[in-house]
Amino acid sequence: MELMIVDDHPLFREGLKTIVSRDEKYTVVCEAGNGADGIRLGKRHRPAIMLVDISMPGKNGIQMIRELKQTLPETRFIIISMHSEADYIVEAFRAGASGYMIKESAAGNLIRGLDAVARGELFLDDALSQEVVYKLMQAKDGQGSGRDPYTTLTAREQEVLRMLAEGMTAREVAAKLFISPKTVENHRTNLMKKLGLHSTVELIRYAARLGLIDLDTWAI
């Protein structure tokens, strides 16, 4: 079964290839160091499974999966990330990932995760907390009856969300959109309420999980 690795750390990619080489069922046919190359090479090689990091230069792993799912519906994706927060993991599965494991436990879990995903199952790292499992169950239960809260935002609220998450002040957003700072604050209040957010830090992290901004540019 052909695999592709997308991670911006060459040494980590080498480590994954070493582990994969121990199992004759799998062969790494390609690797990439960022999301844009991952998309380009993924479309060219069409691997059965892609091992993907989240935090990378340019497009992050979740953005990459969303895009490739449109053209590679048969390819399965396993996230291998340093992020163990529940919200990242829920967003990864919503984007189309079939598995999620933490980098520090990847050595012991990689083949087991590959085998599970190859069988058409979902794989979740044993190291992840019960909070993660609970949130995943909540997300699954709500898929049939509720919408992603982001889709409830107006087009203008989505613009304001992205600009605020990028670090722009209310005055800067107002000047960019030709509206008053007071209107920007009203949009901010409304979108925070719709999304269930309570601080600017939460807003930034939410935007990063959606792929609207790169969280690596923020020291939070």
Which properties best describe this structure?
51% helix; alpha/beta; 6 strands; elongated; 220 residues; Arc Repressor Mutant, subunit A; Rossmann fold; single chain
| CATH-assigned fold name of the largest domain | Rossmann fold
Which CATH architecture of the largest domain?
A: 3-Layer(aba) Sandwich
Helix content: 40-55%
CATH-defined superfamily of the largest domain: Response regulator
Q: Count the E strands.
A: 6
Kindly state the mean pLDDT as a whole number? 86
Describe it for me?
This protein is of the alpha/beta class and 220 residues long. 35% of the residues are buried. It has 2 domains: 2-142, Rossmann fold (3-Layer(aba) Sandwich); 149-211, Winged helix-like DNA-binding domain superfamily/Winged helix DNA-binding domain (Arc Repressor Mutant, subunit A). The chain has a 6-stranded parallel β-sheet, sandwiched between helices. The model has no long low-confidence stretch (mean pLDDT 86). The chain has helices at 10-20, 35-45, 61-71, 86-95, 106-118, 130-142, 155-165, 170-177, 181-195, 200-209; strands at residues 2-6, 27-32, 49-52, 76-81, 99-102, 123-124. Helix 4 links the parallel strand 4 (76-81) and strand 5. The chain has 10 helices and 6 strands.
Compact description:
It is built from 10 helices and 6 strands. With 220 residues, the chain is α/β, with parallel strands linked by helices.
Write the layout of secondary structure elements.
Blueprint: E1 2-6, H1 10-20, E2 27-32, H2 35-45, E3 49-52, H3 61-71, E4 76-81, H4 86-95, E5 99-102, H5 106-118, E6 123-124, H6 130-142, H7 155-165, H8 170-177, H9 181-195, H10 200-209
Helix pairs in contact: 1-5, 2-3, 4-6, 7-9, 7-10, 8-9
